[in-house]
Amino acid sequence: MPGKNRTLQPLTEIRCFMLDMDGTFYLGEKLFPWSLGFIETLQKLGIGYLFLTNNSSKDRYLYAEKISRMGLRVSEEQVLTSGEATAIYMEGRYPGKRLFVAGTPSLLNEFSSRGFTLDDQNPEAVVLGFDTTLTYEKLWKLCDFVRAGLPYVATHPDINCPTEHGFMPDIGAFLAAVTASTGRSPDIIIGKPNRMIAEAAAKKLDLPLQSLAMVGDRLYTDIAIGREAGITSILVLSGETRTEDLPGSPYQPDYIFTHLGELALYLADLYREG
Predict the structure, then answer these.
(1) Strand ranges in the chain using DSSP code E only, listed in sequence order
(2) Are 197 and 178 in a shared domain?
(3) What is the pLDDT of residues 20-61, one digit of tens each?
(4) Domain span at residue 128?
């Protein structure tokens, strides 16, 4: 159902839904029972979809494999990570530059495959990702380059990453350490809730930004990106957010649904009426 936010863009104008994954499309290792039906509805209506994640420690191939294993066959081109979004941003801003990338092997490959030279001695810009292979030596070099004033880009802002056993420190904890040492914060952060990841999605899909909508279960990332990027935001109550969380939040969705199944029914009715 429509929320109580700004002037609504009709959902019939949306050409691609950007989908958060955990809490929206699946929970842990299991698809929600309505998820495949939602995709079938989009396919019948000729609407695209793109899975979106802030996690830059893993690549889009791994996420495509995970979703395919759960029962929906998708390619890596139907997944966008904050790591790929950062590489797309750097292609436009610093094409072909020498980069120091503090990240996992999959993130390093994302940049090298796009023609960037990875350089840990004399880089022209630095990128920090969610580096689960971070060493003290890498952190030290990163701080030296940041302190020297090189352009400094981060893949996303998340402080913690949820796991089955609690939380593990995410890139936000690394950013705090770098700031404590150097006095600098990143020049730009790409991932949700920032508009750059939505712009990267539009570029990847070759679609106008305004033709995209974000669907997710978190107000401060999934819904916040709607305001930051000026695109339609859709909250589903199948994950983190509860109805009682809405009144106190600065981030109000354009539409609210119990889950993707309810959104699918709403879309089918809209197109039937049209």
Answers:
(1) 16-19, 26-27, 30-31, 48-53, 79-81, 98-102, 117-118, 125-128, 152-154, 160-163, 166-169, 188-189, 212-216, 232-236, 255-257
(2) no
(3) 999 999 988 889 999 999 999 999 999 999 999 999 999 999
(4) 95-189
